[in-house]
Every structure is written in C-alpha cells, then in structure tokens.
DNA sequence: GTAAGTTACGAGCGACGTAAAAATG
DNA sequence: CATTTTTACGTCGCTCGTAACTTAC
C-alpha cells in the first residue's frame, strides 16, 4: 500500500527540485528520501524519475503521479480539517438573537451552565434564524415568536423600551409615559447595534432626528455629555444605571404596543438540554 | 500523519459492523485493529466510535469521517490505476487503420521490430484517426492521405482490388480487367470487415447483390463452396492463394481509379521511431 | 458460556540516520 | 573539489500477534 508520507515526500521533491533540498525541508536524511521514492516507484509499478548518476528529475509518469498525489494529499488535509472543525463544533454553542438584550443575560447564563463550551453569540435580525438552527449553524436562537415542528421554544424575557432624558429636559413632563408619535422633531442619541429594534421602532420614527453611534463606549460618553435623550430598555438598564444616577437622568416608558417585545428562546430537539437551564 | 491503512481498516469496520468481523476480513488480529482505530482517533483528534464495554459503533463523527475516508481511498485507488494504465500504455503500441489490408503486414512487422511492446490493432474508417493519434489513443495510424503539422507520414502500401471468380464463370471473359459498372446485377460474396473499402467501393455498387459474411473462416468456406464471385486484393491474396489454387479461381483486376488505394502510415514526432522501421 | 473489546507483553520487520562510495561539472 | 545520489550497516521504533482480562447477552 502507498504511504501518505511517501506522497508528501514526493511532492516536496517535485517542489524543491533535488533530493537534498527536499530532505532538508522535510527534516529527514537524503538517503532515507532516496529509498522512500524507490519504494513508491515499486508500489506504483513505474519509475517516476529520470535518474542520471548525480541528478534526479521527474519524468512524464512522475508528472502524472504528481497531480494525483497532490489531489490525494489535499483530500486528506480536507478530511483532517473537517474532523477538527466538527470536533470544535461539539464544544461550541452558537447563540443568535434578533436583538442584543436577551444575550446580556443568556450568554453568562450559558457560560455558567456549560463551562466547557465555547459560547459564540451573534445578533441577527434577519428571517433565517430558524433555518440556521436546523442546519446547526446556530444551536440556540432568540426570536420574537415561538416555533414548533421539532423545535423547542420557551418564552425567555420581555424587553420594554424607555426614553431617558436629563433632569430638566422638556420631555420630562412625560415622565409617566410617552408615545412614539410625540417624539417627532426631537433629536435622540441612538446606539446602532440593536438588531430587530431598528426595524420594530426606529424606522417608524421618520420625524425624529437620530445621532447614530456604533461604538458602545463612545455612545455612553455622548449620552453623559450631550444632555440629549436616548433609549434604554429594562434589560439594558443595569448597564446604564450608573450613568443614570451620575447624570440624574430619568426613564420614561414608551407606551406604544411596539415598545415591548416578548422573546422566545428556541433550539432543536437534539439540543433541548440547552433550554433546561431556562425552565 | 494519518495512515491509509488506518482508513482501510476503518472502512472495513464500518462495513462489517464489529471489530472481530472486520479483523477476520482484513486478516489481522482484532487487538491490532482496536489499537489502530484508537491511533486514528488520536490523529484526527476526535472519537469516531461510541464504545460500550463489549460493543463499538460509529458515532456521528465516525459517520462523517467515513465519507471522507472513502473519498481518500477512492482517490488513492484512482491514482494507482492511472499509474498502472500509464505504465501499460508505455508498453502498448496501438495501431489504427482505415482498412485491414495494411495491418496484415504492418502488425507482424512491428511485433518483430518492437518485441517488448503489446501490439493492439483496430480498424477505424472514421474521420477521427488524426485526433486520436494526437491524444495518444493511437500511436500509429494508417490512412489514405498523409498529414503534416507535427505528424510524420510515410507512404506505406498500395492496395488494388480484384474480383475472383471460378473457372468457367461467365465473368471470366473479363479476365484482363473489369469495371465496377459491369458488376450490376451480379451476386457477390462479401467479407464485411473491410473498413474504408466499404465506403470507397461497395456502397457505390448499388446494382450489385451482396451476400455478407462477418466471420472470416465462414466467408472462406462460402467462397470455396458456392462458386460465387468475391473480392480480393493484392494484400489479401497471400491468404487466399491456397483457395485460389485449389478451386481454380481466377483474379480479375478492377480497372476503376477507386479500386486502388495508396495508404500512408503516420505517427507523432515523439513516436517517430515507429516509422523508422518502414523507411 | 459465548462473543466482543481492551490491555499487556514479546518478537520481528521496517524506516531512519550515519558513514562511505560513485559520479558529475 | 563541491554537490548530488546511491549503497551499506546498525539502531530504534512501530505494529503485529498471542495471551489474559473484562463485560454483556
């Protein structure tokens, strides 16, 4: 039987041009390499090199064999990588959510519950979460609706949108609640990485001016320094409370139905142990 | 590095279901097989089997690995066969001719000149001989025209068509020569494997009746027994002369231009040594 | 108890490296 | 004379097989 190592050696010789150079690169002795190639030639039943007394070069058969050998080695490498990827996937829990809020508690929760797993999270407001759950791209998804058909779903968290404004801001008069329609003409600071909230609320506020900021820390700095209104939710408020206190901002609940989302956490039947933590 | 043998073992286990059965089939001991699989698992970095104390079955990773392993082994087998085919091709001289006549002398000629080669011959009256010479399907071709452009051609033989009839047959009056047009209405025995002659002459004799025979010996028997006319050529006549004598048949040359063919023997530049024998 | 898999141990084959030889430019 | 390949030889390691052990049906 051909040995893979022989093929690797053979490819190295083709690449390096001489036995000596290839042996150097392969960290083996040159006599060993010479022998290996003779054995390979015997196994294939055909000479792969034109040999003169002090020169050895691929002949036509060698060139033919080279293309096959590369193919075989490529396949072996593909196999090894595929198996490594699969092994890694066994230790990776990928969570996708339509909005960031649920991940703030779900991620640490899962890290504690499955300490040996690599937790990978992703905000994906698109429609393909269920599909990617089924094809195992994701093992856990957070959406705004439950699923059935071999998918297990549980209600997870409810997220309520608030507007925060500094003390003394004109909007303070709505401190018991405000409707989105009343934000027309206002300028509001907006953190951009909010997933489905963008589509759910922000796109509808066509008469409101937004100052967008993608960097979380820069956004928080702007909130503190500018005195402009911004959004928070019941889920984000723990992060923001420090700033809320230090700047004396007040939280105004948004009263529209759209300002409240019930999230559901779903996974496949075979991964349902991931949901036990939430029951 | 993975060993191909390990993959072969692995595939055998998947096929046989148990280590014992696979070891039996592979003609190795079962402990050896058990060890090989553990080593393979180590090399791939992932367990391929679910092991209970006295049972071992492929897990999901194993099923994944199996498909890759089969692919790798297939490629190796393909490589081995390709190299064997190539090796064989180095020892095979394939000659194609548009008609059988030239092969009767060319084949023994080449066998004597290249005694280590396997000589393979083929009658091919189609237009693709030059193409198949270039792609090395054929190494030597016999056609009715010479070629140029990296192809070496030499005139080889001239073949002249004759009609043989028994003594006393009405056509004997044409013993100095006959035209094809004068064969209208005659019934003639025809050996079918005549390549280009079929198209060159036979198809044009629309008013002549043919009794076709594919088997050479049966054809010769028919010629001897029936007293019907048949065709011979200057190249075939050595085979037929015995019958000609024993049955007192006479040969009548066909006088049309079409009844004479000049053949050319051609090969590629790299194989031009094959033509040296003919110069 | 039989059949299957794993562990332990000893033997043999094979691959490797060093050293030396042969050949070319 | 330097570079390259091949041959010879001794050592080390790997794989194999036998034997013994464990476990399940």
Question: Summed up, what is this model?
Answer:
The structure is a homodimer of 279-residue chains. Helices cover 42% and strands 24% of the residues of chain A.
How would you describe this structure to a colleague?
2 copies of one chain form a homodimer. The first copy, chain A, has 279 residues and is of the alpha/beta class. Chain A is 42% helix and 24% strand. Chain A is built from 10 helices and 11 strands. In chain A, strands 3, 4, 5, 6, 9, 10 and 11 form a 7-stranded mixed sheet that branches. In chain A, a hairpin with a 2-residue loop joins strand 1 and strand 2. The longest helix of chain A has 31 residues, at 60-90. In chain A, 29% of the residues are buried. The interface between A and B is medium-sized, with 28 and 28 residues. Chain A binds a DNA duplex (25 and 25 nucleotides) through helix 3.
Separation of termini of chain A? 56 Å
Helical amount of chain A = 40-55%
Low-confidence stretches of chain A: none
Oligomer: homodimer
Summed up, the helix count of chain A is: 10
Strand residue content of chain A: 15-25%
Give the overall shape of chain A.
elongated
Structural class of chain A: alpha/beta
Q: Which sheet architecture does the biggest sheet of chain A show? A: 7 strands, mixed
Largest interface: A-B, 28 and 28 residues
The radius of gyration of chain A is: 31 Å
In N-to-C order, the SSE pattern of chain A is: HHHEEHEHEHEEEHEHEHEEH
DSSP summary, beta strand count of chain A? 11
Q: Give the averaged pLDDT of chain A, no decimals.
A: 91
State the main characteristics:
homodimer; 279 residues; alpha/beta; 7-stranded mixed beta sheet; 42% helix; elongated; DNA-binding
């Amino acid at each position: 039987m051909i040995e893979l190592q022989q093929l690797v050696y053979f490819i190295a010789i083709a690449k390096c041009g001489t036995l000596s150079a290839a042996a150097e690169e392969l960290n083996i002795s040159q006599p060993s390499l010479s022998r290996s190639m003779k054995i390979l030639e015997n196994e294939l039943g055909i000479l792969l090199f034109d040999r003169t007394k002090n020169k050895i070069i691929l002949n036509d058969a060698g060139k033919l064999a080279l293309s096959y050998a590369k193919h075989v080695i490529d396949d072996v490498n593909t196999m090894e990588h595929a198996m490594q990827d699969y092994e890694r996937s066994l230790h990776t829990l990928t969570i996708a959510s339509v909005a960031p809020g649920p991940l703030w508690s779900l991620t640490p929760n899962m890290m504690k519950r499955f300490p040996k797993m690599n937790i990978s999270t992703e905000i994906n407001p698109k429609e393909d979460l269920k599909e990617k759950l089924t094809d195992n791209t994701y093992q856990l998804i957070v959406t705004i609706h439950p699923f059935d058909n071999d998918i297990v779903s549980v209600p997870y968290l409810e997220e309520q949108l608030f507007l925060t404004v500094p003390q003394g801001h004109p909007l303070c008069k709505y401190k018991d609640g405000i409707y989105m329609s009343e934000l027309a003409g206002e300028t509001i600071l907006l953190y951009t990485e909010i997933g489905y909230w963008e589509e759910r609320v922000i796109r509808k506020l066509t008469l409101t001016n937004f100052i967008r900021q993608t960097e979380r820390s820069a956004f928080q700095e702007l909130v503190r320094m500018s005195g402009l209104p911004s959004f928070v939710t019941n889920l984000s408020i723990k992060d923001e409370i420090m700033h809320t206190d230090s700047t004396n901002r007040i939280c105004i609940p948004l009263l529209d139905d759209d300002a409240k989302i019930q999230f559901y956490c779903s996974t496949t039947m075979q991964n349902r142990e991931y949901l036990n933590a939430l029951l």
